[in-house]
Amino acid sequence: MSSPDRSFKVSEIFQSVQGEGPSAGLPCIFLRLATCNLRCAWCDTRYSWDFAEYDYAAEVTSWSLQALLERVVESGEPRLVVTGGEPLIQQDLLARLCDSLPPDLRVEIETNGTLVPNDSLCGRVDQWNVSPKLANSCETRERRFHPGALQRLRDTGRAWLKLVVAGEKDSLEAAELARVLGWPAERVMLMPLAASAEDLMLVGPAVVTAANNLGFRYSPRLHLELFGGQRGH
Fold this sequence. Notes:
TIM Barrel
């Protein structure tokens, strides 16, 4: 492994199917990078950034670019999904990894839309799953809403909005956000706020209805349906 300042801070890496967004159900290798610049109240991956509650030494490993490249390629998966935490915190290293990958390996990055992606990533990434946080995150608007970053992602033509909603108020806020950003409705998805398969069954139908009424798409949460949100899936 390389020295810590030149290594990826990795929370976990595993093979599964994409659970959310427009490519839900497709096989992939997940790379979850550690650390985040937001503190959402309902976050279901706190182990990737909340090191007051979780042990950093136990949760975060350092990987060199070469070791991570080998792990991704040797998996044989056709798609890499980079998530977090907030992966763009490590975007300089991430751009080097993406540039080194086989050109036919599809790359998705999941981001909260608060950081402007660099030119290298904008050119290489096949799909951006962008989840700007709504008021239900309990984050301040100043911290969670960065129009410049969101517009840069929108303008790639390969970015989808994936907005977490729990009810009508959230859905209307999501619609206003998409309107303000000028985001094409066919690339906006509403996803239920849920922490379990049971929550998903309760909230999901209303979110489907809201998405249909607003001209958006519905995003499933297959990892909750299939694995109950268990880590490593």
